[in-house]
Design a protein that fits this description.
The protein is an all-alpha fold. Helix content is 78%, strand content 0%.
Length: 117
C-alpha cells in the first residue's frame, strides 16, 4: 500500500468536507477512488447545533440563489444568435449537453423536494 503525505490526506479531507464527491476528489488528486473512499469513511462526524445548522442552511440557500442567477445569465447569453453562429459545433454540443443535464438535475431535485411535503 502506497503511503501518502499528511498534506495530501489533509487536502483530500478538506475537499471531501467541502462537499466534493469521492470520484471528483480521486481524479483531482490522482488517487485511487478506493483510497479516497476509505479516507472519506474515516472522517469524523461533526455534530451541529440548531444555530449552526440554520447558518449553514442560509449559506447554502444563498449559494444556490447566486448560482441559479449566474446560470440564468449564462443561458440568456447563449440565446444570442450572432454569438451562437460563431461557435464551433463541438463546443455548442458540449454546452447543450451541460445545460440540459443541469436542467434535468434541477427538475429532478425539485420533484424529490415536492415528495417530502
Amino acid at each position: 500500500m502506497k503511503a501518502h503525505s499528511d498534506d495530501t490526506k489533509a487536502a483530500v479531507m478538506a475537499a471531501l468536507l467541502a462537499g466534493q464527491g469521492v470520484g471528483q476528489v480521486a481524479k483531482e488528486f490522482h488517487l485511487p477512488k478506493s483510497t479516497v473512499s476509505r479516507w472519506n469513511s474515516e472522517k469524523p462526524a461533526v455534530p451541529l447545533d440548531g444555530t449552526q445548522k440554520r447558518e449553514i442552511s442560509d449559506l447554502i440557500s444563498g449559494y444556490i440563489r447566486t448560482l441559479l442567477e449566474a446560470l440564468t445569465a449564462q443561458a440568456e447569453f447563449t440565446k444570442d444568435r450572432k454569438w451562437l453562429s460563431g461557435q464551433p459545433a463541438n463546443e455548442l454540443a458540449v454546452l447543450h449537453g451541460v445545460q440540459n443535464d443541469k436542467l434535468f438535475r434541477l427538475l429532478e431535485a425539485l420533484g424529490k423536494g415536492s415528495d417530502d411535503a
